[in-house]
Amino acid sequence: MNEAQITVIGWLAQDPFFTMTANGTPFLALRVGCTPRRYDRRSGQWQDLESMFLTVNCWRSLAENVNASDMKRGEPVVVTGRLRLREYVKDGRLRFSADVEATTVGHDLSRGSAQFRRVQRGTMTEEDRQEAREFTDQWSLTADESDTDPTTPHPNGHPSPDPTDPTDAPLTTNEDHDPFTLQPQAA
User: Basic and acidic residues bias: where (predicted)?
Assistant: First the structure.
């Protein structure tokens, strides 16, 4: 990989902003502020150096997970991602912005604790499983086992295949030519 990967440790400068793009892709943006500190031996004090603020962009499942984590302004975070430098003109002046396209975002656990919640995607309830079994049972009936005419519509509205239409015929492999090419089965 020939991309600049960075890890940023800082504080959320504002609450994360979550939205969906026009094509339905989840997107979340957040600002992370970092203020390096150095110990000044002459004064015996810690000195704050110049603060830096980075825009962090999160996409898809990362955006959804960060949004669900309820991160708020002022919380300590760790971000890893690809560094992107962009130029833009504002008030007639050329400016630069350092953005991070995040691959991971999390709380900085050296400054507090967090509770991990695993994301459950696409899980089926028992009711969903039972409904799927019922539909499977209905579709697995053959014309001989069914008490209906094979050309009558299925209970859920899908028509049964037309045995005289070659495009509705079951597909088999053409072993004489190419075993990976599917051909309509002769009726």
Answer: 124-136
